[in-house]
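Hey, resending since the last one bounced:
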Amino acid sequence: MSNKAIICQDLTKQFGAFKAVDHISFEVEQGEIFGFLGANGAGKTTAMRMLCGLSFPTSGKATVAGFDVYHQQEKIKANIGYMSQKFSLYENLTVTENIEFYGGVYGLSRTEIKKRGGDMIDMLGLSQSAKKLVGELPLGWKQKLSFSVAIFHRPKIVFLDEPTGGVDPLTRRQFWDLIYSAAADGITVFVTTHYMDEAEYCNRISIMVDGRVEALDTPTQLKHSFQAQTMDEVFYQLARRAQRTAD
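The structure tokens again:
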């Protein structure tokens, strides 16, 4: 068995003459927290959709959790979790009802749902809110609950699309504690974020510009390579370089 959670080789997605994803190649280790960065329109979401089995590539190769993105999309979906940028739980159901619903979707038994659901509610500190409608929870609690539900079935990989957008810095830090805990349990975390301070929490970072992977390394090594103090500076230099190339 490969110890690679994700393998991409020249993965490409083309819409007519436009290449949204242009021959990207990278590998993600099992249990790694992998940051997938880029400006709006850089191709991040298109690439993530292919890796999640939601869209067929135009060309190239990729495996996710050992399964081929062309021929084994349903197996990929069964082995991953996904949390979208837009909150995805049902706000007109209670915390417990959401857990029971998604547990059933993931194919867990009632016994498993009850045990894991109780543990999750206790871990999140939601015991007093278990019977509340999710719509009544503060945004930060919704996001933490949504992430916990995304890994409720203990997937091999979880994909997070801008998971902390709109929440305060303290809640963002608490959310990242949940990510670290998931990674410690062996779950690979593939995360997009536009917060450059969060990028530094990742084991490694890939930065996309105009559909291509223009930089990939640890945060420390990227800052060293670009003689930068922060990831904001690294990102700025890459954007300037891309603009000069375009001109």
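The longest helix spans residues 169-184.

Sorry for the duplicate.
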